[in-house]
Each structure stands twice: as C-alpha cells, then as structure tokens.
Request: fold
Amino acid sequence: MAAKSQSNDPKTKSPGSVTFSKAATQGQWGRAWEVDWFSLASVIFLLLFAPFIVYYFIMACDQYSCSLTAPLADIATGRARLSDIWAKTPPVTTKAAQIYVAWVTFQVLLYMLLPDICHKFLPGYVGGVQEGAMTPAGIVHKYEINGLQAWLITHLLWFVNSYLLACFSPTVIFDNWIPLLWCANILGYAVSTFAMIKGYFFPTDARDCKFTGSFFYNYMMGIEFNPRIGKWFDFKLFFNGRPGIIAWTLINLSFAAKQRELYGHVTNSMVLVNVLQAIYVLDFFWNETWYLKTIDICHDHFGWYLGWGDCVWLPYLYTLQQPSEAGASIYRRGNQGRAQGQLGLYLVYHPVQLPTRYSLGVLLLGLLGYYIFRMANHQKDLFRRTDGRCLIWGRKPKVIECSFTSADEQKHRSKLLVSGFWGVARHFNYTGDLMGSLAYCLACGGGHLLPYFYIIYMAILLTHRCLRDEHRCANKYGRDWERYTAAVPYRLLPGIF
Reply:
C-alpha cells in the first residue's frame, strides 16, 4: 500500500548504496525501513530454523511414519542420534538434479517464449500483457500473464506421458522426493543470494530499493521491489507462480499414482485433497492478472522470504496432506516396503477411506471456503475495474474516499470498499481461504497431528498478513483508514477478530 505523507526520491551515493532522508522514509510504504530487535530476532530465527522445519517434517514421514514426536523421543532416550537420522536421509542424486534442472528450465521457457493465447478463446479469462499496481516510487510495470497456459501445457504433457508415452513413471516425484528437496534448496538459496547482490550492484530501479542496517533483514525480506532480467522476466511473478504452484498439482498427482501403485486404488481422501487443491491452483492461474494487485506483488520485496519460500516451503509443506496417505503399510512391509517407497508423507503413509457423509461435509466446507474466497476477491476486483460504478450484492457499493502520496510526491486518490464481503470483515477473503485450508486437513481424518500443520500455519500466516497489511494501510491513508476501520470493525471473524 502507500503512505499518506510526501517523500523525496532517493539519491544514489554509490552502487548498492541508496540513502533516504528521515522524511522520505516516513513517506514510503511496503517493506520496513528500520528493524527493531524483535523483527531482527524473528528473521534470524526463520533463516536458521525454517529449512530445518521442512527437513524435520519430511524426515519424520520418511523414517518415523509421519510421527512428529517419535524422532525427538528417540534422541532423548538415546535410541537414535542425529547422525543416525541424517545417515538414513537420501542425498541429492544425479537423477534428481537432472529432473529439477529440466523442470525449472521448462517453466522458464514457457514463461519467456510463449506469449499467452488463452485469453483469445477462453471467455472471461484475462491474460497477455497486463499492468501491475503502482510501486512506492510511482512506477507501473507490465507483465506477460501466461500462467494458465503454462499450467495447461505442463499437465497435458504429464497426462500424455502417463497414459501414452511412458517416458517416465507418474510416481517420479514421490520416488525422488527428498533428493528433489536438496535441489529446491539449492535454487532457493541461489536465487535469493543473486537477488540481494543484484539489489546492491545493478538494481532494476534504485528508487524502489530498500536498505536497512541489517544484512540478515535485507537478505530475508529483500532489497529490490521488482527485480527483473530484461523486459519481461520478473522474479516475483515467476517464483510466486512457477515453478512451485504449477508443481503443486503435479506433486499431488504423483502421490495419488504412488498410492494406486501400492494399494491398487486411490482413497476418497486422496481424491478430495487433489480436487480441492486443484481448484485453488486453477483459480490462482485463472486470476493471475488479479494476483498482480495482491500483497505478494504490491508490497513484498523479493528476498529469501519469497525466493526460498516459493522454491522449498510451498511445494514441500503445502502438500503435506497427500504424501502421508500410504506409508503405514509401507513400514509394515519392512525392507521391501522401504525399497519401494522410502520417500513419502501423510496420505501415502496413512491411507484414509472416509465415511461418505464425512467426505461430503469436507467437500462442502472446501467449496464454501472457495466460494467466499473467490467472490470476495471478485467483488474487490470488480470495484477496482469499474471505479465503484458497479453493483455489490445488488446495490451500489459504499466506499470510504481516501488520498495518499507516492515517493515521487504525486498525490493520488483511492476508494476503500465497505460493501459485500468487504463490509463483513476487512479480510474476509482470508476467512474463505482458511475454511478451504481446514478442509484439506480434515480430509486426512484425525489420526495424526501432521496434516493439521497446514491450517495452523495458514492461520498464523494470514493473521500476520492482516496485521502487516493494516499497518501499511494505516501509514498510507492515515485518518481515512481510521474511518474505514470504524465502518468495518472486524478483520477476519465478525464479532470475534
């Protein structure tokens, strides 16, 4: 978002050294300028332990049938040492490296070399060249929106291979799950480090760079607002949407294929999670143009938080429900099972066949959450596109008139919507998102805590996003934001929070 006060353009003193006056820093929005001790401690904690958290979850499923407490109990009682656990962890392999390099290269080619044609024949889809939101420096970037096209091509080739060509097994992702984790980490750290070096020495636009006195904060939260190579390769759009989110549905399909290979059928819980998450992923790419106006693109700078997070955290922890659905019987099979399926997580490790009524309830919860999520975002998008000249729930929308000033000292006017779902709560789209997330977890039954990590994580993430977004909006709109919060007093849950 933007800030209410005026600011001056930054002056470049030397390569990678951008300074701002105190007035200027107060007039900016987006990522923080000054880092307090709590923020710095949080950043260092995440840099140190987030990779370990991912490894711990994957290792717990691989070696302890998805028990989160068994590894700790073994170490505490002396039955196992950290070195023993690490020795049993599959290393990176040449095959996994080849798969990962081919995957990322293919997605880069789809992103860079194939202009979108889907918008020419799919009614209602908005693709092709689109403009993003205004940056703090007053810049509006253009983007080539072709994510839906990339998703369709990728999955078409996947199914052609699975049913016709058989060039590789559809279980290939599951079978190389941990070696691929190391490849994803290498890319995540490489792109994050490159982005930081680029921000210091050859930024795309120095006016949208932010430097603090903390190396760790700069590395994690990013320096450049929109790092780019050439005219079209935008780091934030590519790594936010590809390769992680396109891989999401492929990972789920690979896990389902593994479950079928092991048991001869796919459980309804696996089908539920595949369907509900596929709806979410397809929604993302169908509305990729709208995504240009979200917090990830509009406010976050590109650093380790997005670079490593999109390469590792998203594909490995957002898919926790599926891999754990087959492995309990893998372990019962002893060494033979280990040879077949050493790499797996929850719905592969613990196959769950849900009662019909329960599965229908989970499906309805997921679809209701998706409806709220989509309609809330649709209302905001319609409101923005028509400048308020539209109907929300059959009525003319109510608005709060606002003003703000960008870094180039230009004054702008804006409107905040207080009708429809946006009159119920200030972030009611997140409420729908949380309902869908809960449905993913409930599809796994109640036998283990591990699948519920996702809803716990999403609740923390989205609550934090609410607070971050509102802090920016308060700085951007000032008293106008106070009028808005008085009109819509709740963030997520009416009457509660």
Remarks:
- Residues 54 and 313 are 7 Å apart (CA to CA).
